[in-house]
Design brief:
99 residues, two-stranded parallel ribbon, 3 helices
Length: 99
């Protein structure tokens, strides 16, 4: 389906709405791309030492890496623990109130 295929579009969603949605999506992707490039540039200076230390600690970890957090940081922590586990680092998420 193309965005201009009127028979599949809700009556309240015009071709102009579709163009605005695409422009907003492009703008959002550009903002995200700029943020990733800024982060990449930050890793090239002396502030990247803590990241290198964290990687060193994870590589030397015996057992499981435990990730914790409350609220939004807990949601992010769950994702980090899942990513670590899926890439070969044994890990789990533990809610701090349950620890």
């Amino acid at each position: 389906m193309s965005v201009t295929d009127d028979k599949n579009m809700p009556a309240s969603f015009s071709a102009e709405d579709a163009r605005r949605a695409i422009a907003l999506a492009r703008q959002t992707l550009q903002i995200e791309a700029d943020a990733i490039l800024a982060l990449k540039n930050r890793l090239s200076d002396d502030s990247s030492e803590p990241l290198a230390r964290a990687v060193q600690l994870l590589l030397g970890c015996q057992g499981r890496a435990v990730v914790s957090g409350i609220g939004k940081s807990g949601h992010i922590g769950r994702k980090i623990a899942a990513t670590l586990a899926s890439t070969g680092t044994p890990s789990l998420f533990m809610h701090p109130a349950e620890a």
